[in-house]
Amino acid sequence: MEATVSKSLQLTTWNSSDYTVPTLNNSMRLYTRYEKNKSKRVNNMLNCNHLATIKPAIGHRTAGLKASCTSQNFPASLLKSETFIAEEDLLLKKKSEEIKPCLSGRCIYLVGMMGSGKTTIGQILSEVLDYSFFDSDKLIEQAAGGTAVADIFKLHGEGYFRDNETEVLHKLSLMHRLVISTGGGAVVRPINWKYMHKGISVFIDVPLDALAQRLTAIGTASRPLLHHGSGDAYTQTFMRLSKLWEERSEAYTNASVRVSLECIADKLGVGDVCSVNPTQIAIEALVKIEDYLKE
Q1: Which of 81, 107, 262, 275 could be joined to 178 by an S-S link, Cβ 3.0–4.6 Å?
Q2: DSSP states of 8-48 as a string?
Q3: How far is 145 from 140, CA to CA, in rounded Å?
Q4: pLDDT tens digits for 243-261?
Q5: Coiled-coil segments, which residues (predicted)?
Q6: Domains of the chain and any CATH numbers
Q7: Cα gap 19→155, rounded to integer Å
Q8: Which H or E run includes 266?
Q9: 51 pairs with which residues across the strands?
Q10: pTM of the model
């Protein structure tokens, strides 16, 4: 599915004595577009200033190569790895087809700490479920005229960002057939859970040490609650993540289901949670959602 979605919100401004601050109003209009083919299909859209087509890729992972080869001169390990990937994709497709009717169009909200892979997993889920995908942080950035989250924090403070985050979640909660990747701190406001509980919330639980390794490798400059100055990057990142976890861990328990990378790694018989790929996480998310819907 090619989900054509809006990525901008309309803004008004108010003037202070020092500077002009953009504020979100209620002009993010929601509407529904009906397409006619063999059956009437509903696509949820946001009124937009420009459109972007999201085409998530599934199953494109690099396979390690070994020296042994088959008679066709292909590395045996590559063939084995590609077989596993194909099997995973088939399982993902099968599970998504089983769960679609049970969802009844309900939105799926992905929550979890920064760097837990919510965006990548969300894109995979939206693809197989034929849903549209939104990243709440990206919507807020584009609502602020393309201002990055880190700069929004710096210019206007965390409270301003959280207010806009709540409004975005409110607007999205009025829609159907969406997969939404939320910011790591979206869980701290009870009002946000009121909106997310209109759908199904999925907590992507990744161990802090794995998150710290991942975030240190890619850098923390774009993470306003994580960016640090001097000192060992990994240690500083891990300590800050630990502090955020203390503040948020209880809130994450409000999620409808929990997807633990440690549990997935145990099932797969791998020792490192970093070996668990996004498709495997997406499959586990669908299994957990199915169990939740059966309760």
Answers
A1: 107
A2: ---EEEEE-SS-EEEEE-S---EEEEEEESSSEEEEEEE--
A3: 9
A4: 999 999 999 999 999 999 9
A5: none
A6: 74-294 (3.40.50.300)
A7: 10
A8: helix 261-268
A9: 6
A10: 0.73
